Amino acid sequence: MVTFDSIRRDQEHTPSNGLRWFSRWLRRRLPTGIYARTLLIFILPMIILQAVVTIVFMERHWQMVTQRLSMATTRDIAAIIDIIQTYPQDADYSEVTQMARQKLDLSISIEPKGELPPPREKPFFSILDGILSDEIRDQINLPFWIDTVGNSSLVEIRIKLPDKVLRVFAKRSQTYASNTHIFILWMVGTSLVLIGIAVLFLRGQIRPILALAQAAESFGKGQRRDDYSPRGADEVRRAGLAFILMRERIERQIEQRTAMLSGVSHDLRTVLTRFKLQLALVGDSPDLVGLNEDVEDMQSMLEGYMAFARGEAEEDVGKLRLSDILDKVEQDFSLHGKSMTFSIEGDNEISVRPNAFTRLVTNLASNARRYAHTLHIEAKHSTRWLTIIFDDDGPGIPVKAREDVFKPFFRLDEARNLDNSGTGLGLAIARDIARSHGGNVTLGDSPQGGLRATIRIPA
Predict the structure, then answer these.
(1) Radius of gyration of the CA atoms of the chain, in A
(2) Strand 339-346 vs strand 374-381: parallel, antiparallel, or unpaired?
(3) Which of 213, 309, 431, 454 has CA 20 to 30 A from 368's CA?
(4) Could you give the C-alpha distances from 42 to 31, 48, 105, 195, 202, in angstroms and in order?
(5) DSSP E strands: which ranges in 280-373?
(6) Distance between CA 26 and CA 38 in Å, rounded?
(7) What is the per-residue pLDDT for 419?
(8) Over 253-297, what HEC string results?
(9) Cα(349)–Cα(325) distance, rounded to whole angstroms?
(10) Which of 84, 78, 112, 114 is nearest to 96 (CA)?
């Protein structure tokens, strides 16, 4: 009976699932950088090609030539054995020895009543040992002993005759295709040279991409790099020019927004100043208390709009000590009769825009001071990231509203809002400052029962 579970198990073990699993496994183990991946594109085909060529060469040339040379040498040894056994010889076998040296280029000696040495271990990668042994068995068919590794330039062969032992010394080049090592050496050496040239070329091509990435990263942190200029291949130059144009458009838009709001701010401040003068001339009156408060609210709202529009983007990056900021926050908590503790792990000095970052930290801390009784700040400064965690015991913010509170002009009535004037820009300004540093501000649940605010920016 076919069930749904059996069909699902069959689908899980289909070849396509196996291919997807292998693809994921391979992606996890391959390098992620473009430099390393491009090197693999160069090196892997070269290695595979060399392996195929080497195997084919060994099968078609090395082994075949070695077999033919060994066959010819064994045929010469068999002819010498036939001469010794068929025709009468001198006592010292001088004639056959001279003939072998002059005609066959073999050095022989005959040991009367000699014995073969014990068998030697065969070399693991010796083709000559196997081929020469097979040829001696096929053509001579007598007990023998060979040594192909004892002397690098000679091969020793001993044949056991009925009452004597024939020793033959042949040149290795007569029995073995020795030029194969030169071929492999040239092939590997040429490949190493080509890989070296490819590495130098790739470094020159990757460097403009890294420069573009660094310029984009610096711009994301609010650090303008005027020394960047597009270089490299045409595609990289086009990407670099597109980045420069995009950066100019963004900066122009920010300048236009700031200039527009500065003009609006100037006009509104002029009107507010007139209101204040008229109220001051009227004098103190209970009927004007509400109007005075409205004017002050308009003033604080106007400052909040301007702060959000500026985003502190015009400030240069400088050095700042975390302990100095947190000490001021602790003093502020003490003045209001509340508890604040902090800890710093790692380097105390950071590279940020000092005024903007100070405002970011003090805004989050002031928010906790207004709505909670205790606050603990934990700062961790590693080689790559700066993380500051604010844990308080206040009422917190509902989970469904934690992203909405970062939207400009969003007001949270039931819980809390960073902006004292109620414009709904407090958390928006905080996240804007964090993102201008290349990081972010996130909200979560605190172990103390309140809100956890986390600042995380690149170190």
Answers:
(1) 44
(2) parallel
(3) 309
(4) 14, 11, 48, 8, 10
(5) 318-321, 339-346, 349-352
(6) 16
(7) 47
(8) HHHHHHHHHHHHHHHHHHHHHHHHHHHHHHCCCHHHHHHHHHHHH
(9) 11
(10) 84
Q: What is the value of pTM for the model shown?
A: 0.50
Q: Tell me which H or E stretch contains 42.
A: helix 34-57
Give the per-residue pLDDT at 196.
85
pLDDT digits (tens, 9 = 90+) for 219-250: 776 666 777 888 888 888 898 899 889 988 88
What is the four-CA torsion angle of 204, 206, 211, 213, rounded to 10 degrees?
170
- How many Å apart are CA 337 and CA 372, to the nearest integer? 11
Buried b (16+ CB within 10 A) or exposed e, 211-220: bbeebbeebe
Tokens matching residue 192: 């190493």
- 199 near 39, Cβ under 8 Å? yes
Per-residue pLDDT tens over the stretch 390-417: 999 988 888 888 888 887 767 665 445 4
Q: Which helix (H) or strand (E) holds 57?
A: helix 34-57
Nearest Cα neighbor of 425 from 412, 440, 442 is: 412
CA-CA-CA-CA dihedral for 226, 228, 229, 233, to nearest 10: -170
Q: How many Å apart are CA 301 and CA 246, to the nearest integer?
A: 32
- Average pLDDT score over residue span 317-327: 89
Look-up of token digits 């109620």: 422
User: What is the biggest distance separating any 2 CA atoms in the chain, rounded to whole angstroms?
Assistant: 151
Q: What end-to-end distance do the CA atoms of the chain give, in Å?
A: 62
Q: In which region does residue 43 sit, left (phi positive, over 0), alpha (psi from -120 to 50) or beta (all else)?
A: alpha
Residue 377 has pLDDT above 90, yes or no: yes
